Amino acid sequence: MTNDESIESEEYAVALEDLREAVESKPIRDTQLSGLYEEASTARVDLWNTVTAFIDIEDGEAIVTDESKLAEGTWAPEIVDDCDAMLTVDVQRGLSEDLFKSIADEKLAAMIEDAKQDSD
């Protein structure tokens, strides 16, 4: 890994840590993941299986650029290649904010750990 790639991984980890901290400390409606929560907790489970937040890291900040539901399969490569990170949760109609926070925290922690390992 080059020094530039290591720095990018560190910036990525820091941006995701900031997002994780916001999810832990604020109401979901006041975070970048408000749309993901809304989609995951209200979508019809008979139509959709998962919902994904597409995240770009811009100037050291994790910015959710879009949320989208998926019935089955995987995202097209051109969609995945255009974002820096993806946070996917299962659709659970009536999902509580606390459970969503727990799920998001766990997934963000794993993404952060991977980024930190990549920067070493």
Describe, in plain words, how this protein is organized in 3D.
- This protein is of the alpha+beta class.
- It has helices at 3-25, 34-42, 77-81, 97-119, and strands spanning 50-58, 61-70, 85-90.
- Strands 2-1-3 form a three-stranded antiparallel β-sheet.
- The protein is globular and about 45 Å long.
- Keywords: Plasmid.
Number of helices: 4
- Domain count: the total is 1
Structural class: alpha+beta
What best-fitting shape do the alpha-carbon axes yield?
globular
User: How are strands sequenced across the largest beta sheet?
Assistant: 2-1-3
Key phrases:
single chain, 120 residues, alpha+beta, three-stranded antiparallel sheet, 50% helix, globular
Layout of SSEs?
Blueprint: H1 3-25, H2 34-42, E1 50-58, E2 61-70, H3 77-81, E3 85-90, H4 97-119
Antiparallel strand pairs: 1-2, 1-3
Concise synopsis of the structure shown:
Keywords: Plasmid. The protein has 120 residues and is α+β, with helices and mostly antiparallel strands.
